[in-house]
Amino acid sequence: MAAALGVDIVDIRRIREAARRRPKFLPRVFTPEEIAYCRTKSDPWPHFAVRFAAKEAVWKAAGMKGIFLKDISVARDASGRPWALIRGRKRPGIEISLSHSRDYAVAVAMKSR
Q1: Number of domains in the chain
Q2: How many other CB atoms sit within 10 Å of the CB of residue 29?
Q3: Range of the domain at 51
Q4: CB 71 within 8 A of CB 82
Q5: N- to C-terminal Cα distance for the chain?
Q6: pTM for the whole thing?
Q7: CA nearest 52: which of 37, 36, 70?
Q8: Which pLDDT tens digits describe the chain residue by residue (113 residues)?
Q9: I want to staple 109 with a disulfide (CB 3.0 to 4.6 A). Which of 47, 49, 58, 82 is the partner?
Q10: From CA 113, how far away is CA 109, in angstroms rounded?
């Protein structure tokens, strides 16, 4: 059984600047739930950036045509483990891992075939 892998790295500063320059950036890319979650943090930008990276990584791994960034979202289970939703539903076989430092956010997605 082969698997597909997607990875993305994001400069946190670029996400912050995009949101400040274009007020519609956040609602165009992130779901209301993602925006609300990130805004609970004292510094929301690493959280927005890692979700942006996750969307790109899932899109690359899933290889689904007709899927846009806002169709992919990141949720967390009760223990804090992240998982991907596509159009509001958890898809079996897609796993994600997220991390960020002060300057960069990275996400890896794996889809089992």
Answers
A1: 1
A2: 20
A3: 3-112
A4: no
A5: 6
A6: 0.93
A7: 70
A8: 578 999 999 999 999 999 999 999 999 999 999 999 999 999 999 999 999 999 999 999 988 778 888 999 999 989 999 999 999 998 888 999 999 999 999 999 999 87
A9: 58
A10: 13
